[in-house]
Design goal:
Helix content is about 35%, strand content about 30%. The protein is α/β, with parallel strands linked by helices and about 325 residues long. It has 2 domains: about 20-240, P-loop containing nucleotide triphosphate hydrolases (Rossmann fold); about 275-325, no CATH class. The strands form 3 sheets. The protein has a 7-stranded mixed beta sheet, sandwiched between helices. The protein has a 4-stranded antiparallel beta sheet with strand order 2-1-4-5, covered by helices on one side. Strand 1 and strand 2 (about 30-45) form a beta hairpin. The protein starts with 17 loop residues before the first strand and ends with a helix.
Length: about 325
């Protein structure tokens, strides 16, 4: 069951909760332009839990800033929970951040008020929006995140994992359609990280909320059905996981890797593939009936050898010069 607030805009059932098309974000500092996003496209369907993985500087934090309404793209299209992020007025942006999306930061100090208890932190967004069923909603979320015994403790009295679960409950307080998480396990050990990720997945299943986790930690991929790799400001590859039951009744998880093709037909090959096959400069393509073959360009290596020979020939002393050097 998907929960909606009276303030949330109506959405088509078939429409994705997150849809980005050809997003571009250019920053200008001291006359220098930096293109953080270079035509990024992303689709996340309603109720899905997706991890967006990328190295530092890949553009993932820029994307998260746009989806959260804290930043505006230079070009392209972006819709979240039925809201057009490029045409929002200031008032609509406030309503969007209060009702359509919830946000969990890596640093717990940014998620929770240190002088409030867990229950009071969860209730704070409800007070701001004048929601009447505050007590019932707080109790529901405390039970959902398995932190009912922490309701009267302040953040300093909680473990890192408990703090993040209180932060998730706080982000879910106003029943948003989409939950965005920026490195939610970055300050946790492996055991606590697993607990927090499972809590987010369980909340997604029980509340119908769509979850996008932005991280540089590839181990998070084990807790989500879909992992999207971002590289150089574009989505490059995806890994989809599904559970199968074999003939003996045992469950096993099958993973398949895909590359992403943009509307111009461009794609990025996984770096491991490029390195293993020594692909560089250009590759040879062959169109078959049911697939496209990608091959190293053998002629390119021959051309390189010729260029090296030419260079050596150009720098080899002439016969008379050689005699003079002896």
């Amino acid at each position: 069951m998907t929960l909606h607030t009276p303030h949330a805009p109506p959405r088509e059932e078939s429409a994705p909760d997150i849809l980005c098309e050809d997003l571009v974000r250019i920053y200008s500092t001291e006359g220098i332009e930096v293109q953080a996003l270079q035509g990024l496209s992303l689709r996340v369907d309603s109720g899905d839990v997706v991890a967006l993985v990328g190295a530092s500087g890949s553009g993932k934090s820029t994307l998260l800033g746009i989806l959260s309404g804290l930043d505006t793209p230079t070009g392209g299209r972006a819709r979240v929970a039925g809201v057009d992020l490029l045409s929002m007025t200031r008032r609509q942006r406030v309503a969007y951040q209060r009702h359509s999306v919830g946000f969990v930061w890596q640093q717990t100090s940014r998620n929770l008020m240190p002088f409030l208890s867990a229950a009071e932190n969860i209730a704070l967004p409800l007070v701001i929006t004048s929601r009447r069923d505050r007590s019932e909603r707080v109790a529901e979320l405390l039970d959902l995140l398995d932190i009912a015994d922490c309701r009267d403790r302040r953040p300093a009295e909680l473990s890192g994992g408990q703090q993040q679960r209180v932060a998730i409950a706080t982000a879910l307080a106003n029943t948003p359609s989409v939950l965005l998480a920026d490195e939610p396990t970055g300050e946790l050990d492996e055991a606590m990280s697993a607990e927090v990720l499972e809590a987010m997945r369980d909340a997604s299943e029980r509340l119908g909320v769509t979850v996008l986790i932005v991280t540089h930690d590839p181990t998070i991929a084990e807790h989500v059905r879909r992992t999207v790799q971002i590289r150089d400001g574009r989505t490059s590859t995806e890994v989809l996981r599904r559970t199968l039951v074999d003939e003996s009744g045992q469950q096993r998880t099958v993973s398949q890797e895909y590359t992403v093709i943009d509307r111009a037909g461009r794609l990025q090959l996984p770096g491991s593939h490029v390195e293993r096959l020594a692909l560089r400069d250009r590759v040879r393509l062959e169109l078959e009936d049911d697939h496209v073959g990608v091959w190293p360009d053998e002629d390119s290596s021959d051309d390189d050898d010729l260029r090296e020979d030419d260079f050596r020939d150009e720098n080899r002393p002439a016969p008379d010069q050689t005699e003079g050097l002896r």
